[in-house]
Amino acid sequence: MDAAISTDIRELNERIHQESAFIDLLRLETSKAIVGQKYMIDRLLLGLLSQGHILLEGVPGLAKTLAIKTLASAIDAKFARIQFTPDLLPADLIGTMIYNQKDNNFSVRKGPIFANFILADEINRAPAKVQSALLEAMQEKQVTIGETTFKLEEPFLVLATQNPIEQEGTYPLPEAQIDRFMLKVVISYPEKEEEKQIIRQNVSGTLQAISQIIKPEEILRARNLVREVYMDEKIENYILDIVSATRNPELHKLAKLKHLIAYGGSPRASINLALAGKAYAFIKRRGYVIPEDIRSVCQDVLRHRIGLTYEAEAENITAEDIIAEILNVVEVP
C-alpha cells in the first residue's frame, strides 16, 4: 500500500512540476511593474490557486492596488476596481433594477461585481450595507438583484485593501466578514535597494506593459490540481493542533496565553490552513505538503481569526506574537 501511495505521489509530483510552470511566468510578468514585494505576490497567487479572498493591509504607497491590478492584467479575465467611499450604496456594487418606460417593465443593470477579479480598494471606508452586499458575493459566489439571483463567473476573487493608519471616515470590518477572507496579508516597506529601483523606474517613466499570459481555464485547472496535492494525516493533525492551541492553549502547554486570547480560530481556519498549505506546496512545485508549508502560511491565515483580550492589548501583545509562540511550542511532525 505504501509503495502504491509513493508511486502516486511521485506521478503527482511530476504532473504538478509541469502544470505549475505558469507560476514563474506570472511572477516574471508582475515584476515588470512591481519591484520586490515577492511575499505579497506569492500570497496573491495563494489566493488565486485556492479560491480564497485576500485582505491586504499596509500604509499608503506600498503598491497594494498596483500589485492586484498587475496580476489581473497578466490573466485574460475581467477586472473591476471599486473605490469604496462612505457614500457608496449596495446598488453601486451589485447593480439594480432599471425601469424601462418604453417597454413598461424593469430590466437588470449589473454592477461591477460581475467580474473575475474585484479590487475592493479601501474596503473599510464603506458602510455596513455595502460590506454585507459584498459578503454574499464572497461567500455564496452569487448576487441577488430584485427577485433574481445571478451566479458569478469563475474564477471569482475579491482582493481588498485597507489602510490601518486612518480612523476618520472608516467603518471597521465586522469579525464575521473578516473571517470570510482566507488570508490577511500585512505589507511592509521595501528594502533600500528596491526603493531606489522604484524611484528610478517611476521618475524615468519606463514602466513596461503587462501581457496576458494565462487564461481563466488554466487557473481553474490549476485549482483542481491544488486540491489533489497530497497531505499526510500527520500534517492534518499538526494543523488541528495549531488551531486547537488558539482555542484552548492550556491543553498545549501554553497556559500563559489563556488570558490573552478572547476567541480562537473556527473550523474555517483549519480548512483554510490546509488549502493554503496545499497551494503553497503547488507554487513551490511540489505534489505533497510539508510542515514548513503550514508554518509559512500560518500567520496570514490566523492573524485575523484570533481575538485579543484587553490584557493582551494593554501589554502590546499582537496576534502575530501569539501565533509565533504557538508555532514554537506545538510539536512539528
Describe the structure.
This protein is α/β, with parallel strands linked by helices. Helices cover 48% and strands 15% of the residues. The protein has 14 helices and eleven strands. The chain has helices spanning 2-19, 21-30, 38-50, 64-73, 90-94, 128-140, 175-178, 192-204, 216-228, 233-247, 267-283, 291-302, 310-314, 319-329, and strands at 54-57, 79-83, 95-100, 105-110, 117-121, 142-145, 148-151, 157-162, 183-186, 261-263, 307-308. A hairpin with a 4-residue loop joins strand 3 and strand 4 (105-110). The chain is globular and about 70 Å long. The two termini are 21 Å apart.
Helix and strand pattern: HHHEHEHEEEHEEEHEHHHEHHEHH
Structural class: alpha/beta
User: What is the radius of gyration?
Assistant: 21 Å
Number of helical runs?
A: 14
Number of strands: 11
The helix content, as a percent range, equals 40-55%
Name the overall outline. globular
Strand adjacency order, main sheet: 2-5-8-1-9
| Overall CATH architecture of the largest domain | 3-Layer(aba) Sandwich
CATH class of the largest domain reads Alpha Beta
Corresponding CATH superfamily of the largest domain: P-loop containing nucleotide triphosphate hydrolases
How can the largest sheet be summarized?
Answer: 5 strands, parallel
CATH topology of the largest domain: Rossmann fold
Compute the average pLDDT: 84
